[in-house]
């Protein structure tokens, strides 16, 4: 009997040992970040001070090297939903009930809290074009900025950025390609759907990638309209004209089983820089 107890204890210790080797401590934070070129990443590291200037004035991204890097909003949510120790960040407009958004500095991430300036973590959704664009591209942009288009923006959980009147375009025929940010893509799909009900002569192809790819494609002429979930860089502004079509909050998300419901800005910064590595350090 004594030998059996010792054997069971030994097996338990071995299981704990190998589990720890495979996945780290049971409360180790698993950081999930977007890829380089993502506008969401660019906005996030700027807003939380994870990007800092070095002695030469160059901006350095201090996101921890231990982060799991993924290339779309949907994969961030899937990854966080599948790991109880994970944390990531996404567009507020893309948030669903598969994950939990934490309060930041005690404030819940909502459209209303962004509008009343209580929630500080938000960024613009931009589209960008060259100076000379097709009649269809211009008409689609006119729709987006009209009260009809901005209603689509607000109906999908974003904040309107234009106060222009109802759409009264020319409804030209043709095809345009819109490419870029995976954060902007969901609302752009809704805008496309609404516009095509008004202009059945048009064809719009939307290609989801990231903000930098969208801007490069617009500059190279491989798409008509680029999408960016950040401000345009100086190098991009030399060739492109930006237009803000919506404002969007950033939500910091955790697994639904995670008991943590509030984090300070400094804690988020520490987590994504790799300075805070255990949930025990931020337990409420």
Main pleated sheet = 10 strands, mixed
Shape: globular
DSSP strand (E) fraction?
15-25%
Structural classification: alpha/beta
CATH architecture of the largest domain: 3-Layer(aba) Sandwich
Distance from first to last alpha carbon: 43 Å
The residue ranges in which pLDDT falls below 50 over 5 or more consecutive positions are: 5-24
Order of helices and strands: HEHEEEHEEEHEHHEEHEHEHEEH
Q: Regarding CATH, which class of the largest domain?
A: Alpha Beta
Number of domains: 2
Tell me the Rg in angstroms: 22 Å
Number of strands: 14
Mean pLDDT over the residues: 91
Helical region count?
10
Oligomer: single chain
CATH topology of the largest domain: D-Maltodextrin-Binding Protein, domain 2
According to CATH, the homologous superfamily of the largest domain is Periplasmic binding protein-like II
| Estimated helix fraction | 25-40%
Write a compact overview of the structure shown.
36% of the residues lie in helices and 25% in strands.
């Amino acid at each position: 009997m004594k030998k059996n107890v010792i054997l069971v204890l030994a097996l338990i210790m071995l299981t704990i040992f190998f589990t720890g080797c495979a996945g780290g401590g049971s409360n180790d934070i698993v950081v999930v970040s977007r890829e380089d070129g993502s506008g969401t990443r660019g906005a996030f590291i700027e807003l939380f001070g994870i990007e800092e200037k070095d002695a030469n004035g160059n901006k350095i991204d201090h996101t921890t090297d231990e982060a799991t890097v993924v290339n779309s909003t949907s994969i961030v949510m899937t990854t966080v939903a599948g790991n109880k120790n994970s944390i990531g960040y996404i567009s507020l407009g893309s948030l669903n009930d598969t994950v939990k958004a934490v309060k930041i500095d005690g404030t819940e991430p909502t459209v209303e809290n962004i509008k009343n300036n209580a929630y500080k973590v938000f960024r613009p959704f931009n589209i960008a074009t060259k100076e000379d664009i097709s009649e269809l591209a211009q008409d689609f942009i006119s729709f987006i900025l009209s009260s009809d288009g901005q209603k689509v923006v607000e109906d999908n959980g974003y904040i309107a950025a234009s106060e222009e009147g109802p759409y009264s375009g020319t409804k030209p025929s043709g095809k345009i390609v819109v490419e870029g940010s995976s954060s902007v893509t969901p609302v752009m799909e809704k805008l496309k759907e609404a516009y095509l009900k008004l202009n059945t002569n048009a064809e719009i192809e939307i290609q989801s990638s990231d903000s930098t790819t969208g801007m490069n494609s617009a500059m190279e002429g491989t798409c008509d309209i680029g999408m960016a979930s950040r401000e345009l860089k100086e190098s991009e502004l030399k060739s492109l004209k930006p237009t803000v079509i919506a404002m969007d909050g950033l939500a910091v998300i955790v697994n639904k089983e995670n008991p943590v419901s509030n984090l300070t800005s400094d804690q988020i910064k520490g987590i994504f820089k790799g300075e805070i590595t255990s949930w025990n350090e931020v337990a409420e």
